Amino acid sequence: MTELTFHGAARNVTGSSHLLRVNGSTILIDCGLFQGRRAESFEKNRSFPFDPAAIDAMVLSHAHIDHSGKIPMLYRHGFRGPIICTAATRDLANIMLLDSAFLQQKDAEFVNKLHEKKGLPPVEPIYGMDDVVDALGSFQTVGYHRKTAVTPDVDVTFHDAGHILGSAVCLFEIRDEDRTLQLCYTGDLGRPDRPILRDPEHVGDVDYLISESTYGGRVHLQSEAILDRLEDTIKRTVSRSGKIIVPAFSVGRTQELVYHLHELREADRMPDIPVFVDSPLSVNATQIFRIHPECMDSEARQAILTHQNPFSFERLRYIMHVNESKELNGRTDPMIIISSSGMCEGGRILHHLKNNIEDERNTILITGYNAEHTLGRRIVERNPVVRIFGEEYELNAEVVVLNSLSAHADRNELLRYHGRFDRERLAGSFLVHGDYDQAQKLRHGMEEELGLRDIMIPSPGDSVTL
Ligand SMILES: [Zn+2]
Q1: Which of these three, 405, 423, 452, is where a domain ends?
Q2: Of 19, 62, 408, 430, which is most buried with the most CB atoms under 10 A?
Q3: If you measure from the C-alpha of residue 407 to the centroid of ligand 1, how many angstroms do you get, rounded to a whole number?
């Protein structure tokens, strides 16, 4: 018997985690942290809706924390199977999970301050550095297009998802009694014609599809328009002597942004102002990008092989140390500061926002998806007052939203990807990793434009038998 249960990223975009049960074996597909309202995500992240010790193996689509962030906790709670992913995903997960352990510690300290005031007992971080290091020993890496056994009845083959370095669309081959099923899990699907990464790959025809739906109802700008909007935003802000503050994921978005700024600089389309990438994780991630040319498109690969560095240019500085980060607060000259986290839920970006959000000369440039109830979403929605570190701040800075920089396929790109599957063979599709309205819009498009049927938008905990 083959059964799928959707435990996370069901009708929302975070906490990806799906269970695949085949003939008594259990495979966990992704194991991500929930992000959103602090109290709610803190609760959701403290436990599992299944027994980690009963899982035989895990498959990881890519290193983003909303897909990998609970892996150390999985290990802590008794999981001892292999974690199968690409080599670049393992290397990125290494630094990202260590960074996450640090943030878990900070989160627990924050909650404990509140608990102390209320007379409640203290809480422990959900995992520590030791758990990360233990879990890292369980990773088993495999290249793209190399079929590998996950359990006796299930094989997986990774195809490039074009989303972040090492990201994979996972093709499962399931032997269930006298039939063989193909199940495609898109993980997070990237966009065609993006810098650095290759285009998402088609995996061939399948019987079942689990697809992300982050932008199931939206269409992104084309990349030429991205450069124009970046140029306009920078010039407009510099003309009023402001700073441009960019919350960005350290892995993927930051490198892509730097790549675009490099392009603007080369074309003499950018004022001569300093650019700071203020995140130790970004510095480490950029180094990992440079050792994985096998995951890159031909231009980026060529640049790396000829010892050019597409992630650096004059006036760009990577900041490791917190003192250097603090020095930026005292400066009043126009500059660009790129810092994490992308959804403004932690990290040094909070200090830069606190110091710059009330000055109307400044711009906050939003470059990615912001989940509901995050500070990033409140900024996108231009709430007049926002809370940072428990204090209220007026949002006077200009807010520019550049969703087109997204690492996620838009509605048309998702439909083009799905349209390549043989619709006679596709017996069912499951839309995950999207707010409900986006998933509904994608389902509508799949039904009307592609003639697909049996498309389900599962709720957390829903199970289906394949
Ligand atoms: Zn992702």
Answers
A1: 405
A2: 62
A3: 8
Residue with more model confidence, 149 or 46: 149
Q: Are residues 278 and 367 in the same domain?
A: yes
| Distance between Cα 14 and ligand 1 center (Å) | 9
Whose tokens are 């599957």? That residue is 421
Distance separating alpha carbons of residues 350 and 89, to the nearest angstrom: 27
Q: What is the pTM of this model?
A: 0.88
| Cα–Cα dist 281/294, whole Å | 22
User: What Cα–Cα distance (Å) separates residue 320 from each residue in 183, 252, 279, 281, 382?
Assistant: 42, 18, 6, 8, 31
Edge-to-edge strands of the sheet including 275-278?
316-319, 275-278, 336-339, 244-247, 363-366, 398-401
Q: How far is the CA of 200 from the centre of ligand 1 (A)?
A: 13
Ligand 1 centre to CA of 23 (Å) is 30
Do 134 and 239 share a structural domain?
no
Kindly report, residue by residue over 30-62, the tens digit of the pLDDT: 999 988 777 777 778 889 999 999 999 999 999
176 Cα–ligand 1 center, Å = 30
Q: What is the pLDDT of residues 200-224, one digit of tens each?
A: 999 999 999 999 999 999 888 776 6
Under a CB-based contact definition with an 8 Å cutoff, are residues 441 and 217 in contact? yes
Last residue of a domain, one of 383, 405, 427: 405
Residues near 47 by beta carbon (within 8 Å), at least 6 away in sequence: none
DSSP character string of 197-251: BPPPPP----SEEEEE-TBTT--PPPHHHHHHHHHHHHHHHHHTT--EEEE--TT
Say whether both 230 and 307 belong to one domain. yes
- Please state which of the ranges 16-20, 145-149, 303-307 shows the lowest mean pLDDT: 303-307
Cα of 104 from ligand 1 centre, angstroms: 20
Do 387 and 459 share a domain, yes or no?
no
Centre of ligand 1 to C-alpha 61, Å, is 9
Higher per-residue confidence, 106 vs 163: 163
Question: Which range of residues forms the domain containing residue 290?
Answer: 223-405
Q: How many CB atoms lie within 10 A of CB 115?
A: 14
Domain with 345 in it: what CATH number?
A: 3.40.50.10890
Split at pLDDT 50, 70, 90, the class of 245 is very high
Phi, psi of 161 (to 5 degrees): -95, -10
Cβ atoms of 389 and 375 closer than 8 Å: no
